[in-house]
Design a protein that fits this description.
The active site is at 79 (nucleophile), 181 (charge relay system), 183 (charge relay system). The protein is of the alpha/beta class. The protein is built from 6 helices and 12 strands. The chain binds glutamine.
């Protein structure tokens, strides 16, 4: 079984650990570079991306994390985690750091402040049937490079009316990201996709 870390700076760390275990992996929280070096893949939870990037710097994890992702370590970011894995953030704070790994430009708090959170049932490439997606001050992917697979879009919500599908899940190689929070539903299928990516990379 692969050993998957959950970055434990902020966010739903326990929920991600439980989902990964339910999906057949071993899972551990990661706070230090030594712990990062032992895992076969890493989940970056939601939270607040600027705060998370500051915490990554003070825990001296930012550079090691950039290096491991650049070397091909599988990673899965949800919400703020997606923002950190993007190559560029629009509407970010000036000191926002990017880990990179995904050739995408994301827009932070993209659905607007008046819609703090919402849920939607989405088609998700690689998963049969719909996925219940919980969005909390979520970003969307504004631009995706040629090497990026779009896995899910949302429309029919503020900021993404019926005729504007917004990209909310992507994969590039072994890097997966969702603008929403699969760890806040009972459905483990998105985590299972990630565990499969980690197994294949091992
Ligand atoms: N709005 C947050 C940010 O900009 C992300 C929200 C989340 O992770 N639920 O980082």
């Amino acid at each position: 079984e692969p050993l998957i870390g959950v970055l434990a700076m902020q966010g739903a760390v326990r929920e991600h650990v439980a989902m990964l275990e339910a999906a057949g992996a071993r899972a551990v929280p990661v706070r230090r570079a030594g712990e990062l070096s032992e895992v076969d893949g890493l989940v970056l939870p939601g939270g607040e991306s600027t705060t998370m990037s500051r915490l990554l710097e003070s825990f001296e994890l930012l550079e090691p994390l950039k290096a491991r992702v650049a070397e091909g370590m599988p990673a899965f970011g949800s919400c703020a985690g997606m923002i950190l894995l993007a190559r560029q953030t629009l509407d970010g704070r000036p000191d926002q750091q990017q880990i990179g790994g995904l050739d995408v430009v994301v827009r932070r708090n993209a659905f607007g402040r008046q819609v703090d959170s919402f849920e939607a049932d989405l088609d998700f490439a690689g998963v049969d049937g719909e996925v219940r997606a919980v969005f909390i001050r979520a970003p969307w992917v504004e631009k995706a490079g040629d090497g990026v697979d779009v896995l899910a879009t949302v429309s029919g919500v503020p900021g993404a009316e019926e005729d504007t599908a917004r990209i909310v899940a992507v994969r590039q190689g072994a890097v997966l990201a969702t603008a929403f929070h699969p760890e806040l539903t009972p459905d483990v299928r998105v985590h299972r996709l990630f565990v499969d990516l980690v197994r294949k990379a091992a």
